[in-house]
Amino acid sequence: MSAGHTVVTTGPAPESEPGPGPGPASQPAAGADPVVKEMQRAVDGISQRMLALTVRRLERDVLVSRTVCPTVPARVEYELTEVGPSLTRLIKPLTDRSLCHRSAVAGARRAWDGDTG
């Protein structure tokens, strides 16, 4: 890995995790690291399980690497691979657009939910 890639550290690694990929689990425990909690807050409505599954898929696609640290309790770290920034360049314009229109989308969702709820 080249220097400067983002490292995300989760809390203790549980014994197993449903979902794709072999190896130890990556789903953060209830007392997860503040970085994971920050990621959950940044992605409105994402569950801890969905966040874990998404990161595992990114690992499977060689966009992030995963390291289980031999500590007690165990820690799991995620880091962008050299392939990761290529995706970042593609996703950033979409992210910028969604942030720009976030309030309009939220209003439309509230109106829709009110009409169909």
Strand segment count: 3
Q: How many helix segments?
A: 4
Please identify the top-level CATH class of the largest domain.
Answer: Mainly Alpha
Succession of helices and strands: EHHEEHH
Estimated structural class:
alpha+beta
Percent helix range? 40-55%
Descriptive account of the structure:
This protein has 117 residues and is of the alpha+beta class. It folds into two domains: 1-81, Arc Repressor Mutant, subunit A (Orthogonal Bundle), CATH 1.10.10; 83-117, no CATH class. It has four helices and three strands. It has helices at residues 34-42, 48-60, 84-100, 102-116; strands at 7-10, 64-69, 75-80. A three-stranded antiparallel β-sheet has the order 1-3-2. Strand 2 and strand 3 (75-80) form a beta hairpin. It is extended, with a radius of gyration of 16 Å. The termini are far apart. The model is unreliable at 1-7 and 12-31 (pLDDT under 50).
Record keyword descriptors for this entry.
Arc Repressor Mutant, subunit A, alpha+beta, single chain, disordered N terminus, 14% strand, 117 residues, 2 domains
SSE layout and pairing:
Layout: E1 7-10, H1 34-42, H2 48-60, E2 64-69, E3 75-80, H3 84-100, H4 102-116
Antiparallel strand pairs: 1-3, 2-3
